[in-house]
Amino acid sequence: MNELNKIRSNLKRIFFLTCLVLPVITGCFNSNDGKEINIFAAASLSGPLDKIKDSYKESINIDYDGSFSLINKINLGASPDIVIIAGLENIELVDENFNKIKSVRNLIKNELVLIYKDEFGDSLSLKEVCANQEIIFGVADPLLAPLGKQSDSIMNKYENCRKLLEEKNLIISSNAMTLITALNYGHLDAAIIYKSDYINGINNSDSFRISGDNFNETIYYLVLEMNNNKRNKLSKKEDFIDYLFSNNTKELFDEFGFEMVTDDFE
Questions:
Q1: How far apart are CA 219 and CA 109, in angstroms?
Q2: Are residues 223 and 93 in the same domain?
């Protein structure tokens, strides 16, 4: 079983049990069928998308979660109008025949960085952070969020970091948003996070340093227009997607540390 199939299999078990035990959870199988544009978005986009939501002419509803979690909700029956997820390769997880997706476009990109409290030194590498038993280290869950998947891939390159993973001697957060919350509440001394979250999500960023390690990991965010047969929303969906690619939102994404990309594809 390849890695994508493992993720798909694990997520189906997790969310099927969740929906059986907690059927009152909104959006587990069905999204709002009203006039609002319903959007599933990666948790790391909450900053800029909340501002876009406040300024946009139409009413929109946004459900934030790890990208893998959002994908699995769709595969279990949820029908959002638009999905914005991280990770180009993760489109393969949205039903194998792609008949739920009308179009796909690259929107923005991000990168991964290691941050740590400055009390631990001026310039620490990931290997040094993993080797320091006094440092409480955190990552996102590789089964629920692309940030976690990429972090896991990076850590497996180093023996000390592999040992941390194998012994589960670190804190695992469900997605980028909860990882930042753990940092802000002082539960972590170091973490692999998105650069955009360091710029805008860390409340006391002056007490953290960015490691000089270059992970060479770029994360692309994709806008998926979904085939959900809601014809009354077709023009609204297209208008909102056009707005996402406008100059107004480009400036906003830049403000939050993201970079707009232009190599669109259908």
A1: 5
A2: yes
